[in-house]
């Protein structure tokens, strides 16, 4: 890939301006040199790696079922309201499945538990 | 009265109803809050006969932002970037319905307009209408409730459950400093539109929409290229009729197109993104490149900045959009390294940052969000900063002219 060759800091002018400014401190990050190279995004088929399969079973099943139903609903008349509404349901469920995956990805088990059981001892928080 | 119990139990939702303590926000000003109780009948047709609400009299009104886009076009990512600019994490209401669509942070509450569906999933199926169809949405209730919140009155908002496809019991939404209404129709109904202090439309071209949905759905069981295509095509007539026309009303449009840097590219990996900003919007001055009002074409990659293939290209200039005068900033290509982003940020003007490198910092903070290496992330972040600026300007005007603030 062409990107690898360019990894040295070839623009010291820009960087010196940043480091001169005390306010630029928060820019220090372990991801500094290749912050965009996260594995789950765009790029050569790697997009379809593990975290994507993690949508809760029930939603995944609903998506699969809705697709079958949409295909059936459209057999007669692909422009009918019934067919269009069925594909709209597929979209809605697919989006819900995707959101559920995102939620699951960055959820802390304790946080999740405490959201459902805020009154329990292990979930008490103290203001002062 | 049972009132106090209601409010203490939901105190974590929003600090506005706290009774005695002056609240300090992270934006650095103090407000002493006066609270009164009023009785009003519930505008929700489901459930409770009346609710008690509290409102901070003399407090500044809620600022309302509208974000419109089709499903799967990056509204959630945009919301996460926006709430991050305001500081503090946005989270679903604590102890509420786990399938609630609402997000709450210290300053901002984001509500999803799907909650105003008048037909649930079965109802739409029976009637053969999509969620895009206005007939599946209750604009009267949407208007009433957004107006109430804007006027400082809490509401019982329905919850549309995206998993079950049913309307769940309502949740209490208290007036935040900033209310964001996101969904398919924030600018569809004129009454709702008039309540918006700022509006944004995410305009994703068909090619990119297809590429994004492949990324989102291909791993999902039952999906195939055919099913993804069929779903987009089936929804397109309603999308064109009811969603797309809203962009003419938006104060800012983020348009996402395939790149022009790679000939015949339609993979949707490299993107050309335009930020279309309406001129003459109160408290909003468009971002510009080098010289405000001129037409500029800029390739930052050269002697000072080395970019990898296919490079980065910017354009800026005045234009017209649905008969409105606009400024358009365009970025084609993607950032591969941090110095590219800093370099670009340092050449943009009017981006409403509070310190040098703030855009870059925000982008880095969320490097794992989709679009953090291209114009979608860059422009979403900039729009977030512009909204923060708009909010602070409105607050400042209200503080100097408190009488005005009481007017509708």
TrEMBL record, chain A:
Output the GO biological process annotations, alphabetical, semicolon-separated: negative regulation of reductive pentose-phosphate cycle
Q: Which UniProt key words apply to this protein?
A: Disulfide bond
Q: Give the residue ranges for region: Disordered.
A: 1-36, 97-128
Here the segments flagged for biased composition (Polar residues) are 8-22
Q: Which residues form the CP12 domain?
A: 59-128
Tell me the disulfide pairings in this chain: 74-83, 114-123
Note whether Protein biosynthesis occurs among the keywords: no
| Feature: compositional bias, Basic and acidic residues | 99-128
Q: Which SMART domains does this entry report, sorted A to Z?
A: CP12 (SM01093)
The cross-references to Pfam families, in alphabetical order and at most eight, read:
CP12
Give yes or no: UniProt keyword Cytoplasm.
no
Q: Which GO terms describe its cellular component?
A: chloroplast
- Tell me the protein's name: CP12 domain-containing protein
Tell me what organism the protein belongs to: Acer negundo (Box elder)
Taxonomic classification: Eukaryota, Viridiplantae, Streptophyta, Embryophyta, Tracheophyta
Automatic annotation (TrEMBL), chain B:
User: Which Pfam families does its entry note?
Assistant: PRK
Keywords assigned:
ATP-binding, Calvin cycle, Chloroplast, Disulfide bond, Kinase, Nucleotide-binding, Photosynthesis, Plastid, Transferase, Transit peptide
All residue ranges annotated as the Phosphoribulokinase/uridine kinase domain in the record: 64-262
Quote the catalytic activity from the record: D-ribulose 5-phosphate + ATP = D-ribulose 1,5-bisphosphate + ADP + H(+)
Q: Which Gene Ontology terms cover its molecular function?
A: ATP binding; phosphoribulokinase activity; protein homodimerization activity
What subcellular locations does the record give? Answer: Plastid, Chloroplast
Q: Which residues cross the membrane?
A: none
Looking at the UniProt record for this protein, which Gene Ontology cellular component terms does it annotate, in alphabetical order? chloroplast
Q: Does the keyword Disulfide bond apply?
A: yes
Record-level GO BP terms: reductive pentose-phosphate cycle
Q: Which PROSITE patterns does this chain map to?
A: PHOSPHORIBULOKINASE (PS00567)
For this UniProt entry, what is the primary localization, expressed as one broad class? Answer: plastid
Give the matching NCBIfam families: PRK07429.1
What family does the database annotate?
Belongs to the phosphoribulokinase family.
Name of this protein:
Phosphoribulokinase
């Amino acid at each position: 890939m062409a990107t690898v060759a360019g990894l040295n800091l070839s623009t010291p002018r820009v960087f010196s301006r940043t480091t001169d400014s005390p306010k630029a401190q928060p820019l220090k990050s372990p991801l500094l040199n290749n912050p965009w190279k996260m594995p789950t995004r765009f790029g050569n088929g790697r997009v379809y790696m593990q975290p994507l399969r993690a949508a809760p079973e029930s939603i995944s099943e609903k998506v699969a079922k809705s697709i079958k139903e949409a295909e059936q609903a459209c057999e007669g008349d692909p422009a009918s309201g019934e067919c269009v509404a069925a594909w709209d349901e597929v979209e809605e469920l697919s989006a819900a499945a995707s959101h559920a995956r995102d939620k699951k990805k960055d959820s802390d088990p304790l946080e999740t538990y405490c959201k459902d059981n805020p009154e329990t001892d292990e979930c008490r928080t103290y203001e002062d | 009265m049972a009132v106090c119990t209601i409010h203490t139990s939901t105190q974590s939702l929003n600090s506005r109803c706290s009774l005695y303590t002056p609240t300090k926000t992270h934006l650095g000003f103090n407000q002493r809050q006066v609270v009164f109780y009023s009785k009003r009948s519930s505008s929700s047709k489901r459930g409770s006969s009346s609710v008690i609400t509290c409102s901070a009299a003399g407090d500044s009104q809620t600022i309302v932002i509208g974000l419109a886009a089709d499903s799967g076009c990056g509204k959630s990512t945009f919301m996460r970037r926006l709430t991050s600019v305001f500081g503090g994490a946005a989270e679903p209401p604590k102890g509420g319905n786990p399938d609630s669509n609402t997000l709450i942070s210290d300053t901002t509450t984001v509500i999803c307009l799907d909650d105003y569906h008048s037909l649930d999933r079965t109802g739409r199926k029976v009637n053969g209408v999509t969620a895009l169809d206005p007939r599946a949405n209750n604009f009267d209730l949407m208007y009433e409730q957004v107006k109430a919140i804007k006027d400082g009155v809490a509401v019982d908002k329905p919850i549309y459950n995206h998993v079950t496809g049913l309307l769940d019991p309502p949740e209490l939404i208290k007036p935040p400093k900033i209310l964001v209404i996101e969904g398919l129709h924030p600018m569809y109904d004129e009454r709702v539109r008039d309540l918006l202090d700022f509006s944004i439309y995410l305009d994703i071209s068909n090619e990119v929409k297809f590429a994004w949905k492949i990324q989102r759905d291909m791993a999902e069981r039952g999906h195939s290229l055919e099913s993804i295509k069929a779903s987009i095509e089936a929804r397109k007539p309603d999308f064109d009729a009811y969603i797309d026309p809203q962009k003419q009303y938006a104060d800012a449009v983020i348009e996402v197109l395939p790149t022009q840097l790679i000939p015949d590219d339609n993979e949707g990996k490299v993107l050309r993104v335009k930020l279309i900003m309406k001129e003459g919007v109160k408290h909003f001055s468009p971002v510009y490149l080098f010289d405000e009002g001129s037409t500029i074409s800029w390739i930052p990659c050269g002697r000072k900045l080395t970019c990898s293939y296919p490079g980065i290209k910017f354009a800026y200039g005045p234009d017209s959009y649905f008969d409105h005068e606009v400024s358009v900033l365009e970025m084609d290509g993607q950032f591969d390294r941090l110095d590219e982003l800093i370099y670009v940020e340092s050449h943009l003007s009017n981006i409403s940052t509070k310190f040098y490198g703030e855009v870059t910092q925000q982008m880095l903070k969320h490097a794992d969000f989709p679009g953090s290496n291209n114009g979608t992330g860059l422009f979403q972040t900039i729009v977030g900063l512009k909204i923060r600026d708009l909010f602070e300007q409105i607050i400042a005007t209200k503080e100097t002219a408190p009488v005005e603030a009481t007017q509708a």
